[in-house]
Amino acid sequence: MNIQVSESKQVTVINVTGRVDSATAGELGSALSQVIADNKINLVLDTSQVEYMSSAGLRELVSALRKVKPRGGDLRLIQPSQRVLEVLDMAGLTTIFEIYAELTAAVDSY
Hints:
single chain; Transcription Regulator spoIIAA; 5-stranded mixed beta sheet; 5 strands
């Protein structure tokens, strides 16, 4: 798994590639926690290149969302791969996360 963090306007964009499973979910959680600790609460997560996401990965996403929401922030997803979308749907999380087709739309939604 690879994680890259960048800024676009007042939004922090986290690009994740590879597999997010029980072995790598903690790394994703740490990256998200670090961004939030730096007072960056408007987050966009690009999962278009994620091959697989386990329930451990979903827990990290929900945890990050719970950290930013009370502070007036949000975690929005862009371009989830078909596999990620299926897992989100099965877990009932497609109604909790705002999902966008492209980065510009997600960033502009803030």
